[in-house]
Amino acid sequence: MLLRHHETTQELEYRQQRGVHQLREEQVRKQHQTELANQHEYCGRRERELHKRHAQAVKQQPKSLKHKELQIRKQFRETCKIQTRQYKAWKSQVLASTPRDDQKAVIKKLKEEQIRKLAILGEQYEQSIAEMLQKQSIRLDESQDTEVRQLKEQLQQELELLMAFQSKIRMQAEAQRNRERHELQERVSVRRALLEQKMELEKQQFQEERAERQRLLCERQAREIEAFDEESAHMGFNPVEIADASRESLGSSDADSLAGSTLSLAHSNSASSFTHTAL
Question: Where are the coiled-coil regions (predicted)?
């Protein structure tokens, strides 16, 4: 009865613990799924924001390059003006020291030299503009590629940290569940050991009480037999001689009947004697 009650209680405790553990595991699983979903949504939003910013930068790039190109062309025009002023001053100096007959040829030569220098200067500025446009475009592409790579590395690192933290939480939860299962097993084992000890003590006590009752019963029977023998002897009966005589005169079946009658008579006399003594 006690063991059956113990086993029923044990099964209820194990079932309750399994239910609590399953509930905790499900709660942790849903929480981790939500965290991962939020992290993926955050990563996607960061990537979309960066892509939008890059698109705006690319869209704004022509305006910026056009502004720089205009600045270079303005600088080119200023340089041309300076070259023209220098040419006129140089022309005046040369003509002042050149005979009138040779001035026409000198002017033509100086003009051709001026045109050649301006053409070279123009080619240099155009080349500068082309190189500036190319460098700015390459620099923008490299800068955007670097930002994309850095953002992906950062987001991947954050995701790995989150997954590592979740793994640590799961390990700690599993360790706690194992500890609780072990503690419950220990409590059940201790309770069963105490129950078995109690049952053993009760069994031992019962055996001792039974042995005591048997001893008392044997002592009482011995006293009754002794009293019966004394009463029989007082009345002049010898049960042993009567039994021997009966066995000699009767057969086995009659002997058994006579023995039964003798024992009945003996018990009757003993009872009468006890009654008489009590009175």
Answer: 192-219
Q: Residue 238, SS3?
A: coil
**Assigned token pair, 42:** 């955050």
- Which pTM was predicted? 0.48
CB atoms within 10 A of CB 89: 10
Nearest to 228 by CA among 271, 276, 264, 275: 271
Token pair of 177, please? 């569940």
Question: Which amino acid, residue 14?
Answer: Y
Query: How many whole angstroms separate alpha carbon 66 and alpha carbon 71?
Result: 9
CA distance 52 to 69: 26
Alpha carbons 212 and 192: distance in angstroms, whole number: 30
Q: pLDDT category, 167, cuts 50, 70, 90? A: very high
CB 243 within 8 Å of CB 262:
yes
Place of tokens 């409590």: 187
Domain ranges of the chain: 1-233
Given a cut of 90, whether residue 164 has pLDDT beyond it is yes
Task: Give the C-alpha distances (Å, rounded to integers) separating 238 from 99, 187, 205, 235, 272.
Answer: 195, 68, 43, 9, 17
Residues 73 and 71: their CA atoms lie apart, in Å, by 6
